[in-house]
Design brief:
mainly alpha, 7 helices, about 70% helix
């Protein structure tokens, strides 16, 4: 049976992954916004802690995912695989909001019994799996953006960027 510690640990891991996804989308948008105007081979200075999309009313995981979806749809035909990835990202944003805003309140009664905690752990395991998948998708977007403009991750020494990359090495 799942202990309280097991549930808390899974919840913490889910939140860590949600934050990594949000940081990755923020980094992606900074790169996507800044690199097109950068001189070849010379990485621009980017304040990765600032909000990259000032036109959004909220620079959050959900806001970034909605913006990404809009941009994809504006580009025209979106293949089935890309649509499936978008659905996963949208579900991940919804899962993140549930975790942050109402998870414990909604499941307070479940937490009081061993079976309820086991059910919570199963649910969190599914969320963690989706977050890991989506984190890898976002990481690939970041790396593709760099590659598209002729840069490598090593050229960006900002601690926020390097911490983001290091976080993914831990997940492997």
């Amino acid at each position: 049976m799942a202990s309280e510690k097991d549930v808390f640990a899974a919840f913490g891991e889910a939140l860590r992954l949600a934050q990594a996804m949000e940081a990755g989308m923020q980094i992606f948008y900074w790169l996507d916004k800044t690199l097109p105007g950068a001189p070849a081979g010379k990485p621009p200075r980017i304040d990765f802690m600032a909000e990259p999309l000032t036109e959004l009313n909220m620079n959050s995981l959900g806001g970034y995912v909605r913006q990404f979806r809009r941009e994809l749809l504006e580009e025209g035909a979106v293949d089935l695989q890309t649509r499936a990835v978008m659905r996963q990202l949208e579900q991940a944003a919804a899962d993140r909001n549930l975790l942050v805003h109402s998870y414990w309140w909604d499941r307070a009664q479940l937490f009081t019994s061993p079976q309820g905690r086991a059910d919570m752990l199963d649910e969190l395991s599914g969320v963690i799996a989706r977050f890991r998948y989506c984190n890898e998708v976002v990481r690939q977007l970041v790396l593709l953006c760099l590659e598209n403009y002729g840069f490598t991750p090593e050229q960006f020494t900002a601690p926020e960027f390097q911490s983001y990359l290091a976080m993914h090495k831990q997940d492997k």
